[in-house]
Amino acid sequence: MENKNQAQIVKDLPNKKITITRNFNGPVDQVWKAWTDSKLLDLWWGPEPWRAETKSFEFKEGGHWLYAMVGPNGDRHWAKVIYKKIDANKSLQSSDVFSDENGNVDNEMPKTDWFIRFEAIATGTRVTVELSAAKQSDLEKLLEMGFEEGFNMGLSQLDRVLAGQVKK
Amino acid sequence: MRRDVFQAIADPTRRTILGMIASKAMTPNDIAENFKSSRQAVSKHIKILTECQLLEQEQQGREIFYHFNPKKMKEVDKWLDPFRKNWESRFSKLDKVLAQIKNK
């Protein structure tokens, strides 16, 4: 099945905010379930080559989701989502932090506030993720981390392309 | 000579140096220890990266530390692609999960 749903990313660095919008081919209640059920989150939350692995999950206001991002070599990076406001099938507000495996927050690492909205559209559901940070440096750090991973990944791809050209 | 981001990443040693510096600041010795090539050769790459403004120097006591300069990379919007890719990757997995839920 062809999927033309593309993520839109709008950066508003002066206001320390990034907004990600994406449409999904499924009704709101199913998309909501995929964001709020740890068994389902484990299936998709980790971007390649990572996978998410839940340690504990309590989906209620004040509750949290403690999970690890597991890398291809088995390395684990722990993160914690603290649920602040839950409006079923409509919106979800949380604080996202990095932690150790026991959920102790790492204050050296960036801290972000997430506001996720779910709305019904003709083809299914539109999800809007608003990511904001109190500190400019936290947002920059978050982007850099994505940069670093993707950068190294991109470079190994570039190496393969270059190797291919040499053989010709 | 051209001194920009693309010149900086044209060489595999420089790409490796950038990959290392992106995660932590390093001294010239720290950097050189990771390579078989001569210290002079590594210094030359560090010089080019500094001229491309991808590395910044910081004097700490007697040591010089090199930092990665993300602002330079950010000038080229392209370099935020990984953030986008991470989300795209995540979302395409979510598409599959949703398709599975639907078929149940």
Q: What characteristics describe this protein?
A:
heterodimer, A: 168 residues, alpha+beta, Alpha-D-Glucose-1,6-Bisphosphate, Chain A, domain 4, eight-stranded antiparallel β-sheet, 3 helices, 39% strand, globular, disordered C terminus, B: 104 residues, mainly alpha, Arc Repressor Mutant, subunit A, 2 domains, 6 helices, 2 strands, elongated
Q: Please, could you describe this protein's structure?
A:
- The complex is a heterodimer of chains A (168) and B (104).
- Chain A is α+β, with helices and mostly antiparallel strands and 168 residues long.
- Helix content of chain A is 29%, strand content 39%.
- Chain A has helices at 28-36, 38-44, 136-167, and strands at 8-12, 17-24, 51-57, 64-70, 76-87, 91-98, 112-121, 124-132.
- An eight-stranded antiparallel sheet of chain A has the order 1-2-8-7-6-5-4-3.
- Chain A is globular and about 40 Å long.
- The two termini of chain A are 35 Å apart.
- With 104 residues, chain B is mostly helical.
- Chain B has two domains: 1-68, Arc Repressor Mutant, subunit A; 77-104, no CATH class.
- In chain B, strands 1-2 form a two-stranded antiparallel sheet.
- The chains are: A alpha+beta (168), B mainly alpha (104).
- Chains A and B meet through strand 2, helix 1, helix 2 and helix 3 of A and helix 2, helix 5 and helix 6 of B.
